[in-house]
Amino acid sequence: MQAASFFSSTKRLGILGGGQLGKMLLQSTQQWDIYTKVLDPDPEAPCRHGSNEFVNGSLQDFDTVYNFGKDCDVVTIEIENVNTEALKKLDADGVIVHPKPNSLSIIQDKGLQKMFYISHNLPTADFNLYETKIEVIEAIKNKIIDYPFVQKIRKAGYDGRGVCIVHHEQELNELLDGPCIIEPKIELLGEISIIGARNANGEIKVYDPVAMDFHEGANMLDLLVYPASIDGDLIRQAKEITEILLSELEISGLLVVEFLIDKHNRILINEVAPRAHNSGHQTIESSITSQYEQHLRGILNLPLGSSELIIPSVMVNLLGQPGYSGKVYYEGIEECLGKKGIHLHIYGKQFTKPFRKMGHATITNESLDEAKKIAAWVKQTLQVKSQS
Predict the structure, then answer these.
(1) Which of 80, 140, 162, 374 could bridge to 153 as Cys pair (CB 3.0-4.6 Å)?
(2) Are both 230 and 163 inside the same structural domain?
(3) Quick check: bond before 41 cis, omega within 30?
(4) Does residue 235 lie in a domain region?
(5) CA atoms within 13 Å, Cβ hemisphere of 72
(6) How many domains does the chain have?
């Protein structure tokens, strides 16, 4: 397939998932006039506008995914929780699928992810696998698991869902049931994320790492600082690991790698995502090539763009406020639009609920300290509420 034939043509790029990541990916496809077709279970998904075709349907149903993709030339994802058997069938039928279905099957399962890291001698936290909550409780009784620990459901968890942190026996009632991994709760110095990209020719580009802060109540990304101010040797290690994962998983497009930095200054892989990611939103304003354009370049086997930084930035997620559900209202948006260096992205979700991702703000400034101050002001000023 000639990648150039996708420009201003009838060739179809299929995107599984129509949320905010897909919406921002569509902005890059529109810039290049690439014909897009999107599948999402929500008829009001952000991608309902902006795609050439929008299909309302399940991402987990074999027939829906297969029938969606069979008239596409290339199929990619905006979310991991999709039917991989349908993707394997599409791949066998000659549709180009990125990420490769077998690699996606590994990434979909946090247990398989961990075993992949071990088999490739890549650093990750110690872990054990369990099938049920009862097995976990039994392992605690037998002193196999010590407090505090982290439980992660093996499949379908994202944005803090499917994760339970247990500090003592009184919190055991919060354990999640189903196949899971158990890790010791690590004493952290910090968490970083690195975005890498690869095309089918084997060209690789890696962005500088971002430092991540998480919202305690929602257990999801709240704020990130780009670039991260960490030891240069840790940056080198993280980039090398990202390049290994890109190659070993045969990725075309993006791979985002989240790392933990423990109290001994060791870097450990937490998890990966083979798609555009919340920790890369700031590349739209801060990098020569945004993560969205880079993903397109990777999956279409085009030359990769520069991952070079233009200007430092801080990104703040705009989350639905606790206590508010219903038709969304953005309080304080005018004040934010009146300040220099604040770039607002509203995702197009009509209804808010507590901690729902409704948008983000990227604050660009030559001084990261100043950007952090403005980001704190944005968090206080722009409140996502519901209309009374």
Answers:
(1) 162
(2) no
(3) no
(4) yes
(5) 29
(6) 3
